[in-house]
Amino acid sequence: MGSYSRCAQVSTLGASAAPPEALLRDSCLDLARCYTCVEVCRLARLHSGVLMPATDAILTYPDPRLRRTAEPVEEVTPELRERVQAMFPLMYEAKGIGLAAPQIGWNKRLFVINVTGEKEDELALINPRILEKGGGTWLMEEGCLSLPGIHGKVRREKRIVVEAEDLDGNVLEIECDGLVARCILHEYDHLDGVLFIDRLSPAKKQSLKRKLRALEERAASAVR
Ligand SMILES: [Zn+2]
Prior knowledge:
Helices cover 31% and strands 21% of the residues.
C-alpha cells in the first residue's frame, strides 16, 4: 500500500530550494499522490501568495465536533486528496499512528494510519466499512491525539476485514490483525463520534475523571 514515490521535479529541487515557481502550474495538483510534492506545492503557493497557510489542527476533547457522525465522501477530488495527504505530516508531528478527519474538524468518513512510520505503510481509508470482525478479542493500552495525556486499556477484536476507497477512488478490501486492526477500529470509531474513553471499564473511566475534567476546564478557559 501507499507507493508514494518522489517525482522528478521534487528530486531536483531539494528541501532548501527557492520557491519553485515551476510547480505553480496546474499540473502540480496531478502530483497529489506524492506527499513530498504536495508539501512543495503548498510551499510554492504559500510563497507566491496563491494559497493561505493550511490551518488544520488537531481538535482535543471535549470539542463537540469529535462527537458528530461523519458524512460519506461523495467523490475523491484532487482537493480532497491533497487535504488527506496533509493529514500525514500533521499526524507524524503529533507522534500519532492514526488520524481521522473529524479530529481536524472535517466531518468526512476518512482517516489515515501508519503504524510503523515507514512511508510505504501509509494508508488512507475513505468511506471505510468493517465487513468482518473476529479472531477473539485482546486488551491493549490506547491513547488518542485528541485526548492528550490520557491512556487506558481497550478491548477490541484481533482480526478485521475492511473495505474502503483509496486516494485514487479504487475500492480495496484489507484483511489485517494486531496493531493495524486495532488502529483501524480506533479511527473508525472517530467517524461515529466514539472516543476510546467510551470503551474503558467503569473503574478506569472513574480513575481518569480528574484528567478529563482538566481537559474540559482547559477548553472552557480557552473560549472565555
Ligand atoms: Zn483517536
